[in-house]
């Protein structure tokens, strides 16, 4: 139970911590000043959403997200959200590929070469299908968390831990709703694809509570650190580099590598969701379907990393509010617990 619970926990975190999150760009778009309460609310809401989605997936032994959407939205609306999820997974994986190209530019590699490298490795991973993806997440994500938290704690120590939480100045709490909603669709896509592999309720508790607490803690620490370098963020495509400028150059190289790996895990999650949904239409081995999607996505990466995030992420956050509300209401309306 514990092994599988941790495996699903790292799958959830790997889906979340991608180009937008690990770079700091996504957090900066939604949070910023007066957001401590918003991040606490996000932690609670995210935990509940993961638990509900996993509970429905386990009950219906789902292999892709349509059974989960049917339960939450009804058959008519689920068709609309089916299209939305496909578009979401497609466009956010484009963002991951663009992020992979932008990250490798710090090594003076051409943007296009970075995209080719990350795309090729995503395709290669799907030679082993689902097992390859979960194994990579279980290996990469703990390393990424340790390094990221270490960097942020060291930065706060350098600044004298100037973290404050004035309750009278928490006006940005609605950001918790849109930020959680933004991440709902990939969670449904990925967690619904493993419904027939969840054996015990304990796995769901470990995965949902563990991922919520870890992501909430990192988000709070990361956001507070970004506030300390707010004046420099506009100068960087990737806000994390505004923090790393206070460190030796080799630390920027190390974190660039880990950031790239985070982007990689989220790109694989996006492709995994697309493969799971389209198995009925696109026949052939998983790696060949992945190659088809990567080849289709690559031309769209020319729009640039930060432009894609600043336009698409807030838009999806608003559009996802309905399915987000449906997930929160599910245990109340159907008197279910997870």
Describe this structure in words.
There is one protein chain. The model has no long low-confidence stretch (mean pLDDT 83). This protein is 75% helix and 0% strand. The longest helix is centred in the N-terminal third of the chain and has 39 residues. The two termini are 15 Å apart. It has 15 helices and no strands. The chain has a single domain, classed as Hydantoin permease (Orthogonal Bundle). It is globular. With 338 residues, it is mostly helical. Keywords: Membrane, Transmembrane, Transmembrane helix.
Total number of helices: 15
Alpha-carbon distance between the two ends: 15 Å
The major beta sheet can be summarized as:
none
Spatial shape: globular
Counting helices, strands and paired strands, the structural category is mainly alpha
Element-level helix/strand string: HHHHHHHHHHHHHHH
Unreliable spans are: none
Instruction: State mean pLDDT (0 to 100 scale).
Output: 83
Q: Proportion of β residues?
A: under 5%
Helix content: over 70%
- CATH class placement: Mainly Alpha
Radius of gyration: 19 Å
Keywords: Membrane, Transmembrane, Transmembrane helix
Protein name: Putative membrane protein YkvI
Transmembrane segments: 7-24, 36-60, 80-103, 109-128, 135-155, 175-193, 205-222, 249-275, 287-309, 315-334
InterPro entries: YkvI-like
């Amino acid at each position: 139970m514990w092994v599988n619970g941790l495996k699903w926990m790292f799958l959830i975190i790997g889906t979340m911590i991608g180009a937008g999150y690990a770079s700091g760009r996504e957090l900066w778009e939604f949070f910023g000043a007066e957001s401590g309460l918003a991040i606490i609310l996000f932690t609670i809401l995210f935990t509940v959403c993961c638990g509900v989605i996993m509970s429905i997936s386990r009950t219906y032994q789902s292999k892709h997200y349509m059974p989960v959407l049917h339960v939450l939205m009804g058959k008519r609306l689920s068709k609309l959200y089916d299209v939305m999820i496909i578009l979401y997974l497609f466009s956010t994986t484009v963002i991951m590929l663009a992020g992979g190209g932008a990250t490798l530019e710090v090594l003076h590699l051409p943007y296009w070469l970075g995209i080719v490298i990350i795309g090729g490795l995503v395709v290669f991973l799907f030679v082993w299908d689902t097992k390859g993806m979960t194994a990579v997440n279980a290996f990469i994500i703990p390393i990424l968390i340790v390094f990221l938290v270490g960097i942020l704690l060291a930065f706060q120590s350098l600044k004298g831990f100037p973290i404050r939480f004035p309750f009278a100045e928490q006006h940005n709490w609605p950001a918790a709703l849109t930020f959680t909603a933004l991440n709902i669709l990939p969670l449904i896509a990925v967690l619904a694809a493993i419904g027939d592999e969840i054996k015990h309720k304990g796995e769901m508790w470990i995965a949902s509570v563990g991922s919520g607490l870890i992501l909430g803690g990192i988000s709070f620490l990361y956001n507070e650190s970004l506030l300390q370098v707010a004046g420099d963020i506009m100068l960087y495509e990737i806000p994390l580099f505004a923090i790393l400028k206070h460190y030796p150059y080799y630390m920027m190289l190390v974190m660039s590598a880990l950031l790239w790996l985070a982007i990689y895990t989220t790109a694989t999650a996006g492709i995994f969701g697309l493969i799971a949904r389209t198995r009925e239409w696109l026949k052939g081995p998983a790696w060949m379907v992945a190659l088809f999607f990567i080849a289709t996505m690559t031309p769209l990466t020319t729009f640039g990393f930060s432009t894609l995030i600043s336009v698409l992420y807030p838009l999806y956050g608003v559009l996802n509010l309905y399915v987000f509300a449906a997930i929160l209401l599910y245990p109340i309306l159907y008197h279910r617990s997870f």
